[in-house]
Amino acid sequence: MDQVLGQVLRNAVWERLDMLSDLATRADAQSLVSVARSELPRLTEGWRAMLQAHEPDERGDCPTCSTRWHKCKAPCSVWQVAHEHLVAGGLAPQQTAATQRVPGQTRVSPAETTGRHALVNPRRPAITA
Ligand SMILES: [Zn+2]
Composition bias, kind Polar residues: at what positions (predicted)? Predict the structure, then answer.
C-alpha cells in the first residue's frame, strides 16, 4: 500500500472514530441504542482481530511488533492499550478521544505502568508467557 492510500485509509478510520464519539455524546437515546447494536459488535470484532495479530508466540514475543533484530515481549503496546481501554477504564465514560488524540502518538496512562500483573486478564492467562 503506498503512502497516499495509507493516509486515506488512516483518515477514514479516524473520521469513523470521531463520528462514533460524536454520536455517543449527541445522539438521542433511541438512536444511541440502534448505533450501539450495530457498532458494538463491529468494534469488538475489530479489537479481536487486532489482538489476535498480537498474541504472543511460543517465546512470549509479539510476532507483529517484533522485528528480526528486535523482539518485543508480550504484552506489547497493543495489548497494553487494549487493557487500559477495555479493562482498566472499564465501561465508564472517558474523555472524548477526539479531543485528546494526537496522531502518531500513543498516550501513556498510569494504567499502563502499574506493573505486569495489572495487565493480566484472569480469563486470558496466556498473554504473559
Ligand atoms: Zn504487538
Answer: 94-112
